[in-house]
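Methods — Computational structure assignment.
A single polypeptide chain was analysed. Its primary sequence is given first, followed by the predicted tertiary structure written as structure tokens.
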Amino acid sequence: MPADFENKVALVTGATGGIGLHVAEKLANGGATVFINGRTKKNAQQALDRLRAISDKIDFCEGDCNSYADAQAIAVQASALNGGIDILVSAGAQGRVPPMPFADMTGAQLVEAFETRLFPKIFPVHASLPFLRKRGGAVVMVCTDAARHPTPGESIVGAAGAGVILLTKVLAKEFARWNIRVNSVALTLTSDTPSWERIFGAGDTFDAKLFGKIAERFPSGRPPSAEEVARVAAFLASEETSQVTGQTISVNGGLSFGGW
């Protein structure tokens, strides 16, 4: 049974494909008014058609959440749908610098790699806070298990992810006064997503070699799908987890559990 999101306004960033789109589907199935965001309109219409087959309470706003001004404009538009925002799922943040050894990175790449993985996650949270405070609600950020398991080539990816995990704990404490829960979902490698296609469709790259090795190490025998990750994110956004906050849950078939 889908979770009950009736009368809730949900903003999902990075939702024109992959995990964000799967989360948006679950929220729509539960009765939420869902506002999706993407950096371009390229994939938006296909995502909108897919979501509107579930519900007519769907809207879209183009914007890059690596820009605070864009994140703020998106939050304002989403809040106008029903006087506030009840659920924020921050799922976007395609890093503009691929994983690579730290020694091979330039100074400019260090900055860009960190900024494009951290700020698109947290700008929507800050921009949505005035609207979340009106009724209380739930924030779910999607981050990386590179923050928990040191992976050569992902030093900056992991550093940005660790920032999100710590922010999850701190913001859970700070936002409790407004009855806002904050949790995160951490990933390693997820199938049937645009990231999967970028990694394994680009040929013999550092990315493909790194994640090819990772793909062989899942204790469960395979990486999770976007649908499986979305189930956990939607669960954390629901009232079923009303006493869960400040937590980061890894959805990776046990890969980062350790001790296997």
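Note: The radius of gyration is 17 Å.
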